[in-house]
Amino acid sequence: MNDAKLTRQLETWFRANARDLPWRLEARDPYHALVSECMLQQTQVSRVLEKYQPFIDRFPTVQSLAQAPEEEVLALWAGLGYYRRARMLHACAQAIVEHHNSVVPDDVKQLESLPGIGRYTAGAIASMVFHQREPIVDGNVTRVLLRLHNKSVPQAEKETIKWAWQRATELVIVADKPNVLNEAMMELGATCCTPKNIRCDQCPLRSHCQALEAGTTESIPLPKPRAKQKRMYCSTIISTQDESVLLEQRPSSGMWANMFQAPTIERDDHHPTPAEIGEVLSIDHQQLTELGRFTHITTHRIVEFVVYGAIGVQSTPSRAYRTLEALDQVAISNAQRKAMALAGIL
Ligand code: SF4
Description:
Blueprint: H1 3-17, H2 30-40, H3 45-58, H4 62-67, H5 70-77, H6 83-99, H7 108-112, H8 119-129, H9 139-148, H10 158-174, H11 178-191, H12 210-214, E1 230-241, E2 244-249, E3 260-261, E4 264-267, H13 274-281, E5 289-297, E6 301-311, E7 319-323, H14 334-342
Parallel strand pairs: 1-6
Antiparallel strand pairs: 1-2, 1-4, 2-3, 2-7, 5-6
The structure holds iron/sulfur cluster (SF4).
The site of iron/sulfur cluster (SF4) has 14 residues, from helix 9 and helix 12.
């Protein structure tokens, strides 16, 4: 495989075909790039497009994000999922202010030492913002490389990832512009060399692609064995009074850490009964009306929800009423939003 020729062809293709995304500006602000890269991890571009600009409008600088209360950061992140990333981005902004004089470092090793910044994000900032000859590898890049080399292996395996970084390093060394090559690899994986419905007819690397030649594009990479998801049972009680809804905050660790929710009782093996709920909330269970049921699926869990309505459940030190108008400023998970929708809220 002629690496120099391959990288030139890919860079030329990208210059002509790149999608117009708001964070793809010629001169990138390092902090804005940090935000977009954190948002894009495991999240679709279309979803990030909705959330990126309001986040930047509210936190235009690394200092403004560092100083913001976590609750507000989580509220602006709502809808992107994987809230740990929002917490890490917040901690990262605080570390940049505290240890780097509010300047995003340009060195991969320094970037990797920041909270929440792994090898991928460090490489992305170093190459795309500071134009350093650093590789980046994500799922899209790995898939493209595996198909180019006709390697039939699961893409999340340690050995595969190590090989992909090695190969991406070799390519970025001979690239004309490392930032363009890196973005081009990811763009090719997102638009042509996709997991399904591969568009090899539009691919600039057809003449190099060993999987295309072998007729194996569809079967590369091999599927990864799926992790078993744990099942959970939740009863959520939507209690309203005077245009307000009763909310509690989740613990600071575990699923949906620190986020707000309508009072929710969780069990591993069964739905809490109305009698159990009545005991926990100190109400007569006959006050509860079932509003509906749904299943919420996350990477590691299948969560079965039953949603009840109630009126005027007493607030406590850990549960307080919040006005419906102010719910936009509260960090509420997608699952809880679904539950509130069943009660006609949100
Ligand atoms: S020719 Fe097809 S399989 Fe090969 S890199 Fe291009 S899009 Fe992917």
